[in-house]
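User: For a benchmark we're assembling, each entry needs the component sequences followed by a predicted structure for the full assembly. Here are entry 17's components. Please fill in the structure.
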Amino acid sequence: MSLSRTDVERIAHLARLEVGEQELAAYAETLSRILGLIEQMNAVDTTGVTPISHPLEAGLRLRADEVTESDRRQDFQAIAPSTQEGLYLVPKVIE
Amino acid sequence: MSLYRSTLAGLYKLLKKKEISSQELTQVYLDRIEAHSDLNAFVTVDRTRALAQAQAADARLHAGTGTPLTGIPLAQKDIFCTEGLLTTCGSRMLANFVAPYDATVISRFNDAGSVLLGKTNMDEFAMGSSNETSFFGPVLNPWDRRCVPGGSSGGSAAAVAACLAPAATGTDTGGSIRQPAALSGITGLKPSYGRVSRFGMIAFASSLDQAGPMTRSAEDAALMLNVMAGFDPRDSTSVDRPVPDYTRTLDEPLAGLRIGLPREYFGHGLAAEVGRAIEAALEQYRRLGAKTVDVSLPNSGLAIPCYYVLAPAEASSNLARYDGVRYGYRAPEYADLWELYSKTRAQGFGAEVKRRIMIGTYALSAGYYDAYYLKAQKLRRLISADFASAFEHCDVIMGPTSPGTAFEFGSRSGDPVAMYLSDIYTISVNLAGLPGMSVPAGFDSGNRPIGLQIIGRYFDEAKLLNVAHRFQQVTDWHLRVPEGF
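Assistant: Structure for entry 17:
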């Protein structure tokens, strides 16, 4: 699989990464090489194999629906780039 | 022997007998960290905080309520959140991040009364095998400053190797404890998935990440794991099963131990000098009464391709949280919300992290899921099943930790694929979720350390530590210290 510059632009868009015009070719080349490595996977026939997502195949634990944490909004917002009256500030989204 | 070369077990005795105070000991290591700052092993050192912790530990020791790690100064990988102290994860994205809480691993060491010397340098977001991707610059290998210490836990490995700390923590997603332990000549243990809490440990690939100790001996690793291991309700994949005292079984004899040798770990690509050192270590084990049996891990050659789908896919999801809104870096200039995200992420992440986010994003994008992610999850099943079959014939598996010894700066950083091959023997262990260790097993002709890897069954950390400890009682590779330290 060889990625084109357009592919890289699409992936960068999905990943919310700004990629400059002059970087596209280099990304296309390196990412294609990594995909070349990845495609060695196709050497093995995996028909009928059940995929695993967790090494021990344990189901996720449930807990009682009770409040366990205290309110630390101020601590968490103190490290934010920009807040006002308890809200996180971003550029205007809706006119 | 100099105090700073002592093991944790040795320091514990000195502290207990009041032959030295924690404050004196902490001062010794703080001074060494400063004297050897050229290694770049630490991102953050807080002397005041460390000495205050040492003072509290001394009071506890005086009151007789200490534990084996009370008053012991430790280095923590900069991936563990520490309340009130910088946690950078080796990234510009978090260069200003002061966590509002402690990781469970940190809380456990705090409860044990250990002293936090500082936070160690690492590959950015633990993505790397050389420590060259850190925003804070590379760490030098104390054995040869032209070489990398390995990665991603390179700062912890160098700190322990150079005796800047008696022990440290690391994390291992594809080899990030074991490979730097091997390349820096120390002992490193990656426990079974779920054994140590991941709460407050900055996520890279959540189904693979696991924290463990990096130490001067297997006995020290046992002492560290005694504190680190255990169930944590705050980690949804933490395993709720009893934690043994890992020091209790260290001395058990190895007579009759069956060591599996996967033929795939001794073939093409293994440096001859590494192969010879591993063979000599195996001979040592035979003298201790163990026998070796040939086993096969037929799909191990596919571990790297499989890993480079799963780990980037999980990373692309985990790292979506860095958006310049809630914490961490925010680009100084942006016209709208789109630019706030895309410029923040473009500027905050380094090249390797961006590559992995893009590979993961691609693998998970519409139309490609079956060909990449699902295929990799199926291979993961086969790789895991290979180990299960092998363990029907043996108690532990041994082989090299890495195909070569420490390599020179820049020799692989331009070629990600060449860099990835450094972890060829470690990655499959993460995919299967098994415990794995690296112990020093010799040096190459350039005096660069060689690591022996020991892989165990699920939750068989006690066996690994026992097997490593017995080897260390009849060898002295782990006691060697690089010249000038």
